[in-house]
Amino acid sequence: RFAYDCYRRFIQMFANVVMGVNGDKFEHELERYKADRGKTLDVDMSAGDWQEIIAVYKTLVKFPEDPFEQLRMAVEAVFLSWHTPRAIVYREMNNIPDSLGTAVNVQAMVFGNFGDDSGSGVAFTRNPSTGEHKFFGEFLFNAAGEDVVAGIRTPLSVEALKERQPHIYDELYAAQALLEKHYRDMQDLEFTVQEGRFYMLQTRSGKRTGRASVKIAVDMVKEGLITESEALMRVSTNHVEAFLHPMVDPAAKTDIVAHGLPASPGGATGQVVFSAEEAELEVAKGHRVILVRRETTPEDIHGMKVAAGVLTELGGMTSHAAVVARGMGVCAITGCGDISIDYAEGTATTAAGVVIRRGDVITLDGTSGEVMLGDIPKTEASSSEDFQTLLSWADKHRRLRVRANAETPEDAAKARELGAEGIGLCRTEHMFFDAGRIDAMRAMILAETTAERQVFLDQLQVFQREDMLALFTVMDGLPVTVRLLDPPLHEFLPQSEEDIADLAQRIGKPADKIREITERLHEVNPMLGFRGCRLSVVYPEITEMQVKAIISAAADAMDQGLKPFPEIMIPLVINVREIRLISDIIEKSIREVTSSRGISIPYKIGTMMETPRATLGAHRLAPEVEFMSFGTNDLTQMTYGFSRDDAGKFIPKYLEKKLIDSDPFVTLDQRAVGRLMEMAITESRARKPGIKYGICGEHGGDPRSIRFCHDLGLDYVSCSPYRVPIARIAAAQANVGEELPD
After folding, report:
1. In the chain, which end has fewer C-beta atoms inside a 10 angstrom radius, N or C?
2. Is 696 a catalytic residue?
3. Which pLDDT does position 395 carry in this prediction?
4. How crowded is the C-beta side of 549, counted as CA atoms within 13 Å?
5. What's the rounded Cα separation, in Å, for the pair 271 and 281?
């Protein structure tokens, strides 16, 4: 029986992996054979049964009988696997170069399907979901290792070995302790028992959830196994996001229709899809999806990558779905035997008879293993003592400061709570889009005389002053970098006839006049048009209003016993004459406020570096400013000639065809944009050694970009509030990475 079982496995796996035959064909024939004979499990099959299955399998594929030909084809298949779609996706996810290549191991086997005193298992030296320092694993008697990881049968806890084969359990436990101590990391072990003898097949550093990653790293420092610096390098910045994702609200759980194994924690809601291809199609339409499968295989990785969550009918905590989902930080439930999946009908039917159809919305709780109908409310991600410990180590070991991009008191408060050391970019225009303010902003733009414009500027100054005081209050003692008005004025104006008519009625201006001015302000290429510091040049009164609001708010804050540190930033400059002109406007406005209030306020004037010309002339700009902040969104846009708003139409093809290595709007391009930055820093620092440098584009929260900013010698990065913890970790990794030996 054992020999025929091995042979049928060999035919099936060889045909699938080496010859590219769909494995479902073999599974279909096997399941049909079992059903016809009233058999459920592989262990129920006799030698005669396996002989009949082998005969059927050989009708499905022309199987080579020569062992040397089999070996040659197998080795070739491993080398060719480097070019498979799933291997390419995996490399992209983990930043592995295409040129690295792969190796082939040829080794003898031991067999867990030899009999009832044999078996195979997978174990982890610590719990890969929680990080708890407790030996964790799963085992199947009379089964090959593939049965455990493929999720074909739901396995037993490794504790079952302690009862049936205690001497094997003792050997395994001793081996796992020794291996973890040697490698100084949580290990993922594969082992086999053949006829009562224990064999260790493989060990490697185990994939783990974000929470487990942090707990294991912190615990190992406390245990003296690794240093703080090593702990920081052990935690992926992707894993940090696990602390920032929502969880299913326990108080809101309703319509629980099934339970499975909590393979990867977190909460996820989405429309049900039954294939990786469906997942990609629906996500491309803007939908969140839950990928529902009997079990996942490596062919499903592209669907798992885009899914909000994964649910499988079969498999355990160490199945493919569980391990891959944990590594990607995707919520997952495996081994959900409460459901029966019918791919042809596009349904998953629960034990109670509830039918979940393709497109239905469900929620997964990857922490409890519960499946619920509908969109269940979620709670904000919660931190942990271990996470705070790791962040404190990051702060101790990093050089780069981390600020946040924020305009509202709520965003600023969240940023400070998450460890931001100031605001690196306050986009003042966002303050004018509120319902109670947009009319005043529009009336100011539509004004036809300076006097008329000033009436509405005075109103806007009151609004801006209130907002800035709120920010200075939240950021007491920390710098707040305020960018002067940046977007083209037409962005504030109504576009539809209905909106124009409504505005005309509210502000008492003829609709025809509003339409005329709107059309006059319309631009062919607004991102390169009348925006940024060009607004200050043409309408200096707008800059005066903003500066007076900022400094008046700072004075108000000081009156309340607070310590405001405003930094006023001039956007989109191209030369030093612009800076001199606008700096004069800023300084004059500041003097008017401070002299009238009888107060001295600390402040800085700086510039955004977001045009190639500014970076090339940085040595001329440096004497006129106290800081430079690289606006890498626009700098990338202008360097590449790519419109950020339209690049999504072609960048995926550029990536697919390897025309670019990464999306330049996600990860900073070091060869061109980075070279401009490096040139600007080197030449301006030589002219003015004390000048400060920062980055405030979207790249400020990207770990690879942060590493480059560290290498360039920037003083700070600024990112969205929820990426602040990620930036803190990434900045520390950039610094300690220089200290640790390879």
Report:
1. C
2. yes
3. 98
4. 26
5. 12
Q: What is the mean pLDDT of residues 500-513?
A: 90
pLDDT higher than threshold 80 for residue 673:
yes
Does residue 738 register a pLDDT over 80? no
Residue 457 has pLDDT above 80, yes or no: yes
pLDDT tier for residue 242 given thresholds of 50, 70 and 90: low
Is-contact 254 372, C-beta < 8 A?
yes
Report whether pLDDT(275) > 90. yes
479 bridge partner residues: 565
Q: What is the pLDDT of residues 305-346, one digit of tens each?
A: 899 999 999 887 757 788 778 767 789 998 898 999 999 999
Query: Side chain identity at 331, as an amino acid letter?
Result: C
Report the alpha-carbon distance of residue 464 to residue 246 in Å, rounded: 33
CA 582 from centre of chain: 39
d(CA 357, CA 257): 13
CATH 3.40.1400.10 at 2-94, yes or no: no
> What are the residues whose beta carbons fall under 8 Å from the beta carbon of 324, sequence distance 6 or more?
207, 296, 301, 304
The CATH class of the 245-379 domain is alpha beta
Categorize the per-residue pLDDT at 742 as very low, low, confident or very high, splitting at 50, 70 and 90.
low
Instruction: Calculate ∠ Cα 127-129-132, nearest 5°.
Output: 40
Residue extent(s) of CATH 3.50.30.10 domains in the chain = 245-379
- What is the pLDDT, as a whole number, of residue 324? 79
Task: In the chain, list all ranges with CATH 3.20.20.60.
Answer: 398-488+523-739
User: How far is it, in rounded angstroms, from Cα 68 to Cα 319?
Assistant: 32
Burial class (CB in 10 A: 0-12, 13-18, 19+), 62: exposed
Q: Please list the residue range(s) of the chain that carry CATH number 1.20.80.30.
A: 2-94
SS3 241: helix
Closest CA to 67 of 30, 115, 14, 19: 14
- Dihedral of CA atoms 729, 417, 328, 390 in degrees, nearest 10, equals 40
What per-residue confidence (pLDDT) applies to 431? 81
Cβ(418)–Cβ(477) below 8 Å: no
For 561-575, letters b (16+ CB in 10 Å) and e give ebebbbbbbbbbbbe
For position 499, what pLDDT does the model report? 86
Residue 252 pLDDT: 86
**Torsion angles phi and psi, residue 630, rounded to 5:** -80, 115
Establish whether 6 is a catalytic residue. no
| Coil/strand/helix, residue 11 | helix
Residue keyed to tokens 């500041």? 590
- Give residue-wise pLDDT tens across range 279-293: 999 999 999 999 999
Class of domain 398-488+523-739: alpha beta
pLDDT per residue as tens digits for the range 526-545 = 889 999 999 999 999 999 99
Q: Which residue shows structure tokens 């590449």?
A: 640
Least confident of 43-47, 161-165, 249-253: 249-253
Report the pLDDT value the prediction gives residue 151, as an integer from 0 to 100. Answer: 67
Residues 6+ apart with CB under 8 A from 527: 634, 637, 643
Cα distances (angstroms) measured from residue 607 to each of 575, 578, 733: 11, 10, 29
Given the residues 259, 302, 320, 699, the one annotated as active site: 320
- Angle at CA of residue 280, ends 276 and 282, nearest 5°: 115
In Å, how far are 90, 131, 180, 582 from 206, measured between CA atoms?
16, 11, 11, 56
| pLDDT tens sequence across 474-486 | 999 999 999 999 9
Please classify residue 235 by burial: count the beta carbons closer than 10 Å to its beta carbon, then call 0-12 exposed, 13-18 middle and 19+ buried. Answer: buried
Residue of 331, 426, 696, 719 with catalytic role = 696
Alpha helices (runs of H) in 297-408, residue ranges in sequence order? 301-306, 320-328, 385-397
